[in-house]
Design brief:
By secondary structure, this protein is an alpha/beta fold. The protein has three domains: 168 residues, P-loop containing nucleotide triphosphate hydrolases (Rossmann fold), CATH 3.40.50; 172 residues, Rossmann fold (3-Layer(aba) Sandwich), CATH 3.40.50.300; 221 residues, Sec63 N-terminal domain-like fold (Orthogonal Bundle). It has 28 helices and 19 strands. The strands form four sheets. An eight-stranded mixed β-sheet has the order 4-3-5-2-6-7-1-8, with helices on both faces. Strands 10-9-17-14-11-13-12 form a seven-stranded mixed β-sheet. A two-stranded antiparallel sheet has the order 15-16. A hairpin with a 2-residue loop joins strand 15 and strand 16. It starts with 12 loop residues before the first helix and ends in a 5-residue tail after the last helix.
């Protein structure tokens, strides 16, 4: 085959099996440990499609992965790659198109003909179907995918992969091959920091860390320093012997850098990075090179001076960095590039860094063996543990990888620790929960028969076809809500219905605001403020903003509308009711739309810059979705004006992606 890619390593059996399945035009579901080389299969499909003049789609669960893959694939396939996310649209008709799974799902529902030329789709991290908030998007995409398209599903180990594949075979008529392996080409070695010692066996952890005497010691230490694991800062004051710093000293001595250090608190990541400044990770020459590379990258991206930029500059000059969602996206990009280029030897980061971002490391440290899941602080999920551990020891770079688990016997029992280390990952479950917009799109095509779609869901498959299904009842309740609110009348979508079917996630509040005439009365700036309020989710202790008379009026009208929507939802027992708007970030956006500097904007809020940028971009995304709805030309002109008022400088994701693609370190 002329399109065969040459790799620096011999392909494994599971990769060869996948190649063979692709050649037979069979869909493929791959279950393999993190770090085994699943991306090789995706690259083979891309190369095959481009060689044959066909189009291929690549989807990822988060925008950071989409952006990284855009840069990687642009290098591998020059002039062949495009990307579409809620933030970015570059070369949207390219033969190799990267998009979020939401964008693909929307296209399947709204514009099936736009996919007629696409022959393959790659679902990276397909186990994200189990995500509580967004998993339904993967399930809907798989159910409604056009029959001519074949798929590659790439996943970390799925214990119930056969069950998952059996479901897929019931909804698709073409052959689907299951390929699974538990073999990792780069072996992992597990170590434990407990009671001031670095241990390599669990039985020793039990003997040293879980004796009665040690429990008394830890009880004292816990009472003194671990009073509030749910506190906003959660900066644990470890004893010196069992401190992260002593563990990092061990890594330096054992020559096991670079290292990804996972912690589950942004503030703790920053705290640990600053504590590590006392260590000597790199030589004086390397320090100078790292600092120059950082300065050069920041200058190329025109990143303005800020307290965080200067703080990270000091850390990077010592081979250290932290990384989390609160950082300015362009600064995050600089840190990722520096880590990949080995200027940074240890990075303190939250767990999102584990999800598919290609950052090779010899070692991984997991700061604690439990994390906050919703309202509760409990032991790590097995899948999360393996996702993080799998970031160590990268194929083609390392011969072995090292995983260090920091153990506090007061946090988890020995049985729980053993379970995390030895149990199989949790089976993936269905999170099917069709949105109002999805229901409207399906109803437009199938009318009342749209409910038959539920029989195709993984949820229904797992339930063994029980008739009194919770999710089916929720779909029926949403249909009743839509009819009650006049989105569907006489088995047809109304004007509101046609508007709402394009606005995923915020469809009812925006459609009601339009129908009431409020959107057309607002100025361009007020429209931006309203959209920000619709997407914004405040933290519990965020200080409330004082609103102007005009904003109070808009808020009062919006509150009245959302109250009516939620009352109807309560009547029909909808569990996940429509989100209330929150106007807490209004004045920050007003300042931004007045062209004040971004540094001045963030000073007026309690949020990190990364969070502010995320919410501003979400506002732009729903404004763009509104442009694709049947609203009057005058309102569309106002929407475009609002987008231009917000989407510049630090907020312009498309400009950022194009700029970061050309960084030279």
């Amino acid at each position: 085959m002329k399109y065969k890619i040459k790799y620096k390593f011999e392909l494994d059996d599971f990769q060869k099996q996948a190649y063979g399945a692709v050649e037979k035009n069979h869909s493929v579901l791959v279950s393999a440990p993190t770090g085994t080389g699943k991306t090789v299969i995706a690259e083979h499909v891309m190369t095959k499609c481009l060689y044959e003049g066909k189009k291929v789609i690549y989807t990822a669960p988060i925008k950071a992965i989409s952006n990284q893959k855009y840069r990687e694939f642009t290098t591998s396939f020059p002039d062949k790659v495009g990307i579409i996310t809620g933030d970015v649209s570059i070369n949207p008709f390219a033969p190799l198109l990267i998009m979020t799974t939401e964008i693909f799902r929307n296209r399947v529902l709204e514009r099936k003909n736009s996919l007629i030329d696409h022959s393959w789709i790659i679902f990276d991290e397909i186990h994200y179907l189990d995500d509580i908030d967004r998993g339904t998007v993967w399930e809907e995409s798989l159910i409604l995918m056009p029959p001519h398209i074949r798929f590659i599903g790439l996943s970390a180990t799925i214990p119930n992969v056969d069950q998952f594949a059996s479901w897929l075979k019931t909804i698709h008529s073409h052959p689907i091959e299951i390929i699974k392996t538990t073999i990792r080409p780069v072996p992992l070695h597990f170590y434990f920091q407990c009671s001031g010692k670095i241990l390599n066996e669990l039985k020793t952890v039990k003997k040293i860390g879980y004796s009665r005497r040690k429990n008394i010691y830890y009880q004292y230490n816990y009472n003194q320093h671990y009073r509030s694991p749910r506190s906003s800062i959660n900066l644990k004051k470890e004893t010196y012997n069992n401190s992260p710093i002593s563990l990092i000293r061990h890594l330096i001595k054992a020559n096991r850098l670079p290292c990804i250090y996972f912690s589950f608190s942004r503030k703790r990541c920053e705290y640990l990075a600053k504590k590590a400044l006392s260590l000597s990770l790199i030589s004086i020459e390397e320090q100078n090179n790292a600092q120059m590379a950082y300065d050069r990258a920041c200058d190329e991206l025109n990143i303005s001076e800020s307290e965080r930029k200067l703080e990270l500059r000091e850390l990077v000059s010592k081979g250290i960095a932290y990384h989390h969602a609160g950082i300015h996206p362009m600064l995050k990009e600089v840190i990722e590039q520096l880590f990949y280029a080995k200027y940074i030897k240890i990075i303190f980061t939250t767990e999102t860094f584990a999800l598919g971002i290609n950052m090779p490391a010899k070692s991984v440290v997991i700061d604690e063996m439990r994390k906050n899941y919703g309202r509760f602080h409990k032991m790590l999920k097995i899948r999360d543990f393996h996702q993080m551990a799998g970031r160590s020891g990268r194929r083609g770079i390392d011969k072995e990888g090292f995983v260090y688990c920091r153990i506090n016997p007061e946090e988890l029992s020995f049985r729980q620790i053993s379970h995390i280390l030895s149990a199989s990952s949790e089976p993936i479950r269905s999170r099917f929960n069709a949105s109002y917009a999805t229901i409207l799109n399906l109803y437009e095509t199938y009318e009342e028969n749209f409910l038959n779609i539920f029989s195709l869901s993984f949820y229904h498959f797992l339930e063994k076809k029980q008739s009194n299904s919770y999710q089916l009842n929720q779909m029926k309740s949403k249909l009743k809500t839509l009819k009650q609110l006049d989105y569907i009348r006489d088995k047809k979508l109304t004007i509101k219905g046609h508007l709402a079917k394009k606005l995923y996630g915020y469809e009812l509040i925006l459609a009601e605001l339009y129908k009431s005439g409020i959107l057309e009365k607002l100025s361009a700036k007020e429209l931006g403020i309203l959209c920000l309020a619709v997407v914004f989710e405040p933290k519990p202790r965020l200080k409330k903003a004082k609103l102007s008379y005009e904003l109070k009026r808009v808020k009062a009208e919006t509150d009245k509308i959302i109250k009516h929507i939620r009352n109807v939802e309560k009547t029909y027992r909808i569990d996940s009711m429509s989100k209330r708007p929150f106007f807490d970030l209004s004045f920050s956006l007003i300042d931004w739309m007045k062209n004040k500097s971004f540094d001045n904007v963030i000073e007026e809020t309690d949020l990190d810059e990364g969070e502010i940028i995320r919410y501003y971009r979400m506002s732009i995304q729903i404004l763009r979705e509104m442009l694709d709805t049947p609203v009057p030309t005058e309102l569309k002109e106002k929407i475009s004006k609002t987008i231009n008022l917000i989407n510049y400088g630090a907020i312009d994701a498309e400009n950022q992606l194009q700029s970061t693609a050309n960084i030279e370190l």
